[in-house]
């Protein structure tokens, strides 16, 4: 809504007028606003590109005003193809992780079946007794 050739005072006067338009109440926090207006969050919203030394384009001022809550970054955003590759990589990693978990569960199930079979037998020879102790250690000490 800033007109061509408007100063900062003209913009503030118009803002106060718009604020009081429907409420018949005057904006009372001007001192606070003046104290905070030069802070980074508000610097790009008032007076264009403050501190840049150049006027910049209209598009850059609008994007600054819209994105004032985000942290500025000089890094270029990720492209569509790179994002797709990243997503596919994550899904492949997830699938391999799930396959590993399933394999571990199958192994643990086999060991548990073997343990139950050995504990149900009444007389165990030395080899089976050693296997039973080994299975107990693996299954219940972890």
Automatic annotation (TrEMBL):
Query: Which PANTHER family does the record associate with it?
Result: PTHR45023, PUTATIVE-RELATED
Specify residue ranges for compositional bias: Gly residues.
45-54
Top-level taxon of the source organism: Eukaryota
Protein's name according to its UniProt entry: No apical meristem-associated C-terminal domain-containing protein
Species whose genome carries this gene: Vicia faba
Q: Where is this region: Disordered?
A: 38-99
């Amino acid at each position: 809504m800033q007109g061509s050739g408007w100063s900062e005072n003209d913009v503030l006067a118009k803002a106060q007028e718009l604020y009081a338009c429907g409420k018949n109440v005057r904006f009372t926090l001007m001192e606070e606003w003046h104290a905070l207006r030069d802070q980074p969050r508000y610097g790009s919203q008032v007076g264009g590109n403050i501190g840049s030394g150049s006027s910049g384009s209209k598009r850059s001022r609008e994007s600054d005003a819209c994105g004032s809550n985000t942290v500025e970054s000089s890094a270029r955003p990720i492209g569509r193809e790179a994002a797709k590759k990243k997503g596919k990589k994550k899904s492949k990693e997830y699938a391999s992780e799930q396959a590993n978990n399933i394999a571990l569960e199958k192994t643990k199930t086999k060991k548990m079946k073997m343990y139950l079979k050995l504990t149900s037998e009444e007389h165990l020879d030395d080899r089976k007794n050693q296997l039973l102790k080994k299975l107990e250690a693996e299954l219940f000490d972890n």
